[in-house]
Amino acid sequence: MIPGIDVSHWQSEIDWAKVKAAGVKFAFLKASEFPDKRTSMYTDDKFDFNRKGAEANGIYWGAYHFFRTHIDPIIQAEAFCKLVGKPTSLPMVLDLEVAGCKGSKLVRKVKSFVETVTSLSGRKPIIYTSGGFWRPYLTYEKLTDVDWASEYPLWMARYTSQWPGTIYPWGGWDFWQYSDKGRIPGIKTYVDLNWFVGSLKDLQSRFLPSGTLSKIAEEENPQEPSQPIHLFHSTNEVTQDVDPLINLATEEKQVLTKLEPPVSGQKNEETKVSSKKDPSSFLSFLHGKFNKKEKKTVDPLQSQGWIDDVVYRDR
Question: Domain holding 90: CATH number?
């Protein structure tokens, strides 16, 4: 499950850096609509600002169009696609939640819109709706009128703490808007909260343009440098192709394996002698540090007394 949000001008100016730091991975941004009884398209005041903010902070974004029925669906789709341009992140979205008609008439309008967006953008749009709207308006006359919709991803709205059910004809949902009262850093108002059902790689592979996933993989896994890196290099020493850390670890291991574990109450003479050899040597210094540690012995009677005192003193 991947967290996301959807926003419009109602969220005012958003601090997208804080939104990113809060863990948001994707955002749906309102782009346009044809307001009721108007024939000119309205572009959301914050669409460009939000798109740039999401892109700058590595948040996947998708633009949505609030669908109306008083304007021809093809005109709406063409104006929407012209505004957004080629979608470089998530697919475009049909926001379906109000209507001036229902049944087969509405189905034809919705189908015409998504088919036009698919043709112009080259990608199938996501359908946003709720069961409370879809069932009485889209399947009003005949259930099979909407069989074609299963070919499009579903973003379902249902404000509940329980796992949402399905909407015919989809077998499940891809995105779930589960709250309109979210509060997150970077946004001063309430904001809609969403989940994507899947992992981040699922989101990338299914909903980003082809070729984007390989580019992301290259950014996350940069190639190793072709030249070997020499640590602890000194201009007074001859540089070799062998990693000096490996030499140091090998030499130290050989010395330490020769040391016998110290006997309780006695000093290990070999350790004592080893620590005195070449005190200017860094390796000898390390050996001295290691070898000064003595093996600790445990008195069973003393341990049992401590256990009895701590564990059973309140009994």
Answer: 3.20.20.80
